[in-house]
Amino acid sequence: DAKTTQPNSMESNEEEPVHLPCNHSTISGTDYIHWYRQLPSQGPEYVIHGLTSNVNNRMASLAIAEDRKSSTLILHRATLRDAAVYYCILRDTNFGNEKLTFGTGTRLTIIP
Amino acid sequence: EPEVTQTPSHQVTQMGQEVILRCVPISNHLYFYWYRQILGQKVEFLVSFYNNEISEKSEIFDDQFSVERPDGSNFTLKIRSTKLEDSAMYFCASSDQLAGVNEQFFGPGTRLTVL
Fold first, then answer.
1. pLDDT tens readout for residues B47-64
2. Which of A51, A60, B5, B40 is the 20 to 30 Å CA partner of A70?
3. Which residues fall within 8 angstroms of residue A17, CB to CB, at 6 or more apart?
4. Considering only CB atoms, which chain B residues are within 8 Å of A49?
């Protein structure tokens, strides 16, 4: 799996938007960009994924750079429940590579 | 909403004992996984399982580990002779597609403590 780089930690105020960056300069053409998060004392949870175009779902938005070497997970209005470790993960579809390779992620703290 | 369940939530065992961690994946899913997370460390892949056989395993998944789908609903991880370093959270996950597009659904985990 290609490597991703994320800041170790970020803080945001409650009810403010949060932009979580991820660099993946060695991404290949078949890599999907996935985001998972892990709330305290819970298992990881899928957030969103994309290939080239920006994506929106009920949890978040994913903005993908035109060259695909970076992406940003956007939480539009952070709540205390969004405090978690957020992981940016690349998954190659060509080889049926099923596993998720987690890095250290970004620990997001929400300030009330 | 369907979810992955795991039992027990916490297992305490003596070094050298066998443990079996149990998971019930989401019912229509076909692909199953075990991951572990040692306290304060990354989530690490152990093994993936499809069509009643292991499809991929990591270096961690040595001869002391085995997986089984004994019936249509359960997916188990067995550690034959536990070591102190096996103490970790063990997460089961399932998904319904092979390619790297569909999400994996994770259970709440089993905390294994080896004394």
1. 999 889 999 999 999 999
2. B40
3. A74, A75, A76, A77, A78
4. 101, 103
